[in-house]
Amino acid sequence: MSKRLSLYIGALVAVILIAATLVYYSQTKKVFLQEIYSQGQFIVDENKKSINNFLSSLRDITSAVYQDSEIREFLEGDTRKKSIIEKHFLSLQKTIPLIQAIRVLNTNGDILIFVREHKNLSGVSGYCPISLSRKGFYKNAVNLGKGKMIFSNFERGRLPDAEKFCPAMLRTVIPYFSGKKKSGFLVINFWGNAIGTAIANPFRDKKTYSFLVEFNTAEKERDGIFVFHREKRYEFANQLGTDYRFSNVYGKEAEDYMRKHESGIYRIPGRNDFLMFSTISPYNRKEQVWKVCTVLSGDYFYRNLYALKRNFLVIMVIAIFMSVITGIAFSRRFTRPFRSIKDSLQRYGKGELDYNFEITGDYEVREISVNIQKMAVSLKNHIQELSISRKKLETMDRLSSLTILSAGLSHEINTPLNSVILLSSMLYEEVDEHLKEDISTIKEQALRCVKILNNLKSISPVWGRENNMSEINLKEVVLKLKPLLDLTGKAVNITYDLQDCCFHGNQVHMEQIILNLVLNALDACDDGGRILISVLKKGGVAVLRVSDNGAGIPEKELSAIFDPFYTTKSPGRGTGLGLSIVQSIVKRYGGNIEIHSKVGQGTTLEVRFKERECESSYN
Predict the structure, then answer these.
(1) Closest CA to 593 of 537, 547, 543
(2) Contact 187, 193 (CB under 8 A)
(3) By the 8 A CB rule, do 159 and 165 touch?
(4) What one-character-per-residue DSSP string does 120-141 give?
(5) Confidence tier at 184 by pLDDT (50, 70, 90)
(6) Beta-strand relationship, 530-537 and 493-498
(7) Which residues pair with 545 in a beta bridge?
(8) d(CA 324, CA 7)
(9) Radius of gyration over alpha carbons of the chain, in Å?
(10) What would the pLDDT profile of 511-552 be if each residue is shown by its tens digit?
(11) Which of 49, 187, 429, 443 satisfies CB 3.0 to 4.6 Å to 103 for a cystine?
């Protein structure tokens, strides 16, 4: 199968490559153009994202400085804050090199605090405030509302007393308010060369480059100027008095196309170059926008196409050869999952339902493998359910046998026990006083044996809970059994914490519960162990609790501890009926039983019944 599949794959690849050759020349150019568009658009999108992130960081920095309450207090008349603010501004310039200058203006546009390039200009003796009231950004800021911020034009700065322009910069302006009236302005100058670092050129050659141009129909002198370009002489034609505007460099058609579209690709006529662009609106108005542009050289990309044409035939021959080799490898890999599936089905047929095989292959093969494993798990669960059902039937059969056995035992043993009771009564009348207590104990225990035999049917569904019911004080029952518990012959310390707790029930049943729980605790403890028997009240509930510090029960065995004939004791030491009988009795009385155990720390069994008020108290 794998050989045929590899031949089919090789033949198919050869046909596809031959067909591709026939249409290659008509399609390759289109593919390369799409690649150029894709790469160019990617660069433009990344540049746009970087510039927006840069502008966002300027807003964040300005907002953080604006939150300084001391500036607000200074503008409201507290001149003592001036030196503190100036020191803070100097510290900010050291921390944030992006900041060129920070200024605080009054409502007339006068610079009250002026820190520029790590120099405190306003702190110099004889400082005369400089007025910015004629600046366009100040005029725009006068109309700002509370919490509003604007960017100034991206331009080269120049103070009134300076002859040359400073490097390019971008300002943020935000007003302060005292109540509903403006009290001043915060103006922060940021170095504009950071825009250059935000515009990427992944090709690192002169064939591909990016630039930033501003279209501004509201200010004609700024319309079409370059605010960033690899040719620095192109930048800020409005300030430097040059003619290097977009339409003069890249053509009027390209400018008209960019004005009509938010983003797109334009092929520059006669240059075989491609211009990709996207729009940024830092001023939130249509009249003034930035266009981030990337120029890709078509010749640069087409040279790869020309080289590919020359080598295509060689590549095709190599590809056909490799396709045959790949087909062989693929066919083997494709058939491998089916071999694994076949092996797993054979194992499942032998009953090894726990076997898990590695799921490999494509989606359909994986789906088949998963369904096969699910089928095996489902079959395994079904078999387990059948096993559990069989065990339940066996348990019911045992319980039925136990009921029959208890009836036989009651019939066969009651007769000699009644003889013991009768002879004990006769001896009690004839023996001396010092022997009467022993004779009385013999009679009481014989009577107790009769009651236990009569109540073995408590685990039978036909048992009636109304027989011999009376008010029972759990404290009295425990104290009555205390002499017997103290005669166990095992060096275990049994302590008691007893309260009067009464409810309606059969005293023999309660004795069975207590004895079974305590005897199990004794079996679990070594010499020197401790057992605590507690009787207490909890919110209208009578609670019997038996705790020991014995070996404990593993967690995995706790779920089966109440099953009939289940025991953790060694052979010959238990029948596994004790806790089953206890649980059966507790359920008949509408109570519940809980077990908590940790290996090496001990076990606590807690039985709860609905309490009723005691009419008497055992002293």
Answers:
(1) 543
(2) no
(3) no
(4) ESTTSTT--PPB-TTSHHHHHH
(5) very high
(6) parallel
(7) 534, 606
(8) 7
(9) 49
(10) 888 888 888 888 888 888 899 999 998 888 889 999 999 888
(11) 187
Q: Which residues pair with 170 in a beta bridge?
A: 190
In Å, what is the CA distance from 194 to each residue of 57, 64, 99, 405?
11, 20, 11, 98
CA torsion sign for 316, 320, 325, 329 is positive
For residues 596 and 170, what is the distance between their CA atoms, to the nearest angstrom? Answer: 73
**H runs (alpha helix) in 209-362:** 237-240, 246-250, 252-260, 298-349
**Residues contacting residue 329 through CB under 8 Å, at least 6 positions apart:** none
Q: Angle at Cα 398 formed by Cα 396 and Cα 400, nearest 5°?
A: 70
- Name the helix (H) or strand (E) containing 166: none
Spatial contact of 265 and 41, defined as CB atoms under 8 Å apart = yes
| Look-up of token digits 């014989």 | 446
Q: What angle do CA 516, 519, 523 make, to 5 degrees?
A: 135
34/41 Cα distance (integer angstroms)? 10
**Sign of the CA dihedral 317, 321, 326, 332?**
positive
Domains within the chain, CATH numbers bracketed? 68-194 (3.30.450.20), 466-610 (3.30.565.10)
Q: pLDDT by residue (tens digit) across 552-605?
A: 888 888 877 777 766 666 554 555 667 878 888 888 888 889 899 888 889 998
The amino acid that residue 550 corresponds to is: G
Three-state secondary structure string covering 340-352: HHHHHHHHHHCCC
pTM above 0.85, yes or no: no
Where do the DSSP E strands lie in 325-459?
none
Report, as an integer, the average pLDDT of 377-385: 78
Greatest C-alpha distance within the chain: 143
Q: Choose among 304, 274, 278: nearest CA to 207.
A: 274
Q: What are φ and ψ of residue 284, in 5° steps?
A: 60, 40
Q: How many angstroms separate the CA atoms of 263 and 406, rounded?
A: 95
* Measured distance CA(141)–CA(152) in Å, rounded: 9
Q: For residue 551, give the DSSP letter.
A: S
Contacts of 255 (CB under 8 A, 6+ apart): 224, 246, 247
b/e per residue, 257-269, with b = 16+ CB within 10 A? ebeeeeebbbeee
Q: What is the DSSP string of 565-618?
A: T---SPTTS--S-HHHHHHHHHHHTT-EEEEEEETTTEEEEEEEEE-B--SS--
Q: How many Cβ atoms are within 10 Å of 144's Cβ, its own excluded?
A: 16
